[in-house]
Amino acid sequence: MSTNIGADDALWVDGNALAGPLGEIMGTDLTVAELTCAGCRTTRPLAAMRVFDRAPGLVARCPGCGEVVMRVVRMAGRVLVDLRGSLVLSLPVPVA
Amino acid sequence: MALITPGFGGRRRDDANLPPGQYRTDDFPVLSAGPTPRIGLDEWELAVITETGERSTWSWAEFTALPADEPTVDIHCVTHWSKFGTRWRGVSLDTLLADVETAAEYVVAHSYGGYSTNLPLEDLLDGRAWVAYEFDGEPLVPVHGGPARLLVPHLYFWKSAKWLRALELRLDDEPGFWETAGYHNYGDPWREQRYRAD
């Protein structure tokens, strides 16, 4: 797992931090999903995103252009996933 | 309803100042939805933009020459911590907006770095909000929103936008960064308005 711990900046961790909260609600490992950033149109695995988790929610940003690609907010009995910063979410089909 | 006898049960004297669901901390936790913008004072500018597009701007020198207040206030973060007696220096929104002609009822605060949050205009007036540039007698450091941040202590602290760049006055309400992602549109800590369904 990569992070910027120790840097003189807001802390981020990599997109693997999203595996727990998203897997819990969607029942699949989303870190192998790929997201296309709406800012720079680059496609990367979710695990490659930078996640700012010291915040009221999880904020995933594109490591290329820095734009927000996903926000995850957990409230009572519900998890909200805001994907307006992403153009495409692609998922591998599970092998039977 | 439980009755609590004063002096029996160790109820802290300042509990009455703690909104529901909050705990008190003496630290000043840093929360951030992205990298910390670093804005040089020579390039810093604060703008107020009305609903007709009219802009009022202040350079750092102009802004810090305005009459300033030194509020001491309690602050309440939606992540459940509250910090009592924080000391700030900043310019009241009453001062900043004194000569601005507007029919707006809403404001969107825009930050360097792209953050935004929305508030009713009336919540920024009557001595309830500042643009703060000192904390505890020192210049406001970047991780806490320096050079200058919005300070609206009667609402959850995500409304007190760090790295303030512009105040956009609007006739209609436009939800900001957290408000569009499930957080409450108004955010009153005393009514525990954390999420949009609260």
Key structural traits:
heterodimer; A: 96 residues; mainly beta; three-stranded antiparallel beta sheet; B: 198 residues; five-stranded mixed beta sheet; 11 strands; globular
Note the topology.
The complex is a heterodimer of chains A (96) and B (198).
Chain A: E1 13-14, H1 19-26, E2 34-37, E3 43-45, E4 50-52, E5 58-61, E6 68-75, E7 78-82, E8 86-90
Antiparallel strand pairs in A: 1-4, 2-3, 2-8, 4-5, 5-6, 6-7
Chain B: E1 23-24, E2 45-49, E3 55-59, H1 60-64, E4 72-76, E5 81-92, H2 93-96, E6 106-111, E7 116-120, E8 130-135, E9 138-139, E10 149-151, E11 164-170
Parallel strand pairs in B: 1-5, 2-11
Antiparallel strand pairs in B: 2-3, 4-5, 5-8, 6-7, 6-11, 8-9, 8-10
InterPro entries (chain B): OxRdtase_Mopterin-bd_dom (IPR000572), OxRdtase_Mopterin-bd_sf (IPR036374)
Organism (chain B): Micromonospora costi
Protein name (chain B): Sulfite oxidase-like oxidoreductase
Structural class determined from secondary elements of chain B: mainly beta
Low-confidence stretches of chain A: none
Say what oligomer this is: heterodimer
Average pLDDT of chain A, rounded to a whole number, is: 89
Alpha carbon gyration radius of chain B: 17 Å
Trace the largest sheet of chain A across and list its strands.
Answer: 1-4-5-6-7
Percent of residues in β-strands of chain A: 35-45%
Overall domain count of chain A: 1
InterPro entries (chain B): OxRdtase_Mopterin-bd_dom (IPR000572), OxRdtase_Mopterin-bd_sf (IPR036374)
Domain Oxidoreductase molybdopterin-binding (chain B): 34-178
Pfam families (chain B): Oxidored_molyb (PF00174)
Protein name (chain B): Sulfite oxidase-like oxidoreductase
